[in-house]
Amino acid sequence: MELDQTEMQAVVKRLKRAQGQIGGILKMIEDGRDCQDIVTQLAAVSKALDRAGFAVIALGLRQCITDPEGGTMDVGSMEKLFLSLA
């Protein structure tokens, strides 16, 4: 199923922010920053990626409901995707 690109812009924005955070984490490691600070940032990036994944799943489910004939994903496939994020 191809997702609506306009609605995916929020996900793209979130992923770009996470990409910046990852760059910051790499710099923290290179600079020898405190372990606690690094892990805190890693947790934040992990949460951001999870939320991006859930947003993609939610968009896919919404599209399946509004246009059930237009997609190739069934409920079982969407459930499997959702659970892969857990």
From TrEMBL:
<keyword id="KW-0186">Copper</keyword>
<dbReference type="Pfam" id="PF02583">
    <property type="entry name" value="Trns_repr_metal"/>
</dbReference>
<comment type="similarity">
    <text>Belongs to the CsoR family.</text>
</comment>
<dbReference type="InterPro" id="IPR038390">
    <property type="entry name" value="Metal_Tscrpt_repr_sf"/>
</dbReference>
<dbReference type="InterPro" id="IPR003735">
    <property type="entry name" value="Metal_Tscrpt_repr"/>
</dbReference>
<protein>
    <submittedName>
        <fullName>Metal-sensitive transcriptional regulator</fullName>
    </submittedName>
</protein>
